[in-house]
Amino acid sequence: MPHLNGFDVAAQIMQHHKNVKVIILTMYNDRKFVEDCQKMGVQGYILKNSGVDEVIMAIEAVVDNKKYYDPKLTKKTTTNQHTDDFS
Fold first, then answer.
1. Partner residues linked to 5 by β-bridges
2. What are residue 47's phi and psi, to 5 degrees?
3. Which residue among 9, 26, 31, 32 sits deepest, i.e. has the most Cβ atoms within 10 Å of its Cβ?
4. What pLDDT sits at residue 49?
């Protein structure tokens, strides 16, 4: 996505389409990105290395109006090496 990142796209979708639910599928497990998505109101956040069952659980949870954040995301998430992607 030239000139945009997934976070920006999610924000635009949520701003212009209030009924759309957003699940972020990403390689970023940086706490800042997770917290920013939570603050923005993203309903789901899962890591790309998640299995199919995990993705299905996330989709089902969000469809049921629940939040789903990858259980691999803990307070000990790592610092992301790609912070320039979100500048």
1. none
2. -90, 150
3. 26
4. 93
77 and 31 Cβ atoms separated by less than 8 Å: yes
Taking 70 as the pLDDT cut, the residues of the chain under it are 1, 74-87
**pLDDT digit string, tens, across residues 17-35:** 989 999 999 998 888 888 9
Provide the pLDDT for residue 1: 59
Say how far apart CA 1 and CA 30 lie, in whole Å: 21
d(CA 75, CA 15): 28
∠ Cα 87 67 71 (to 5°):
80
Beginning with the edge strand found earlier in the chain, give each strand of the sheet holding 23-26 in spatial order: 23-26, 44-47, 68-69
Tokens 């945009």 locate to 4
DSSP state, residue 68 = E
Token readout for 61 is 């949870």
